[in-house]
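Here is a complete protein record:
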Amino acid sequence: MISTRSVSHNKNTMKIVSYNVNGIRAAINKGLMQWINDYQPDVLCFQELKATPDQIPLMDFEMMGYHHYWFPAQKKGYSGVGLITKQEPDNVVYGMNEPLYDNEGRFLRADFGDLSVVSVYHPSGTTGDERQAFKMVWLDFFRNYVNTLRKERPNLVLSGDYNICHEDIDINNPRKHDTSSGFLPEERQWMTDFLSDGYIDTFRHLVKEPNRYSWWSFRAGARQKNLGWRIDYHIVTDNMKDRIAGVDILPEVMQSDHCPIVLELK
């Protein structure tokens, strides 16, 4: 737990978790449902489902008291986002009305009164130049889309896997990764520019210490050595600054190559 303002089980707050599960069926086989039952998030945003709703044990979520919403990719076993919540949303919006991205299941929004929570999965550029170019075009589209959405829904929580480490503090051995997708100068600059539009990286807002990561390569002992990257974020509109009550990253939760990240909102 972080020492600054750690996450509690407070009735006056909403505990929002984001978790790239790297295949929800595999994560369930590694104890995901038990962890959710123990941790009791109010809202849990999933990324990288790699499954369709008919392949997910929906009844198990319902028995734990969750409403559930799923936005899979059209391609089997790929991408996809989901969201489970104890409070039923007033409204759920699937996608961004742009087939190029919606076919990959990357954006799902739930509205609760004046608050909107988004589960977002930004593309990875690690497979080569074509997907890196796709990622950069997506990033511009996402920024414009969210800035427009904000006029209608001013209180946004944008939770998910951004596939970008922003600063040197967010990655192990930064100079080794200067030419790696996820830490390229243009990606880092995009994050700087996006935040400057009036958004807060909630984790860094409260926690300034290094070596706090949310993803580790499966390669030789990276997780044990904590050779990680912080690529998962809860980003909120800056008008919500005073509602940020606590943040955390949970590396001890091991159902994926990512781990859950936590935001507690007043």
Observations:
- The helical segments are 24-29, 32-39, 58-63, 99-102, 129-152, 185-196, 202-206.
- Residues 14-265 form a domain with the Deoxyribonuclease I; Chain A fold (CATH 3.60.10.10).
- The chain has one domain: 14-265.
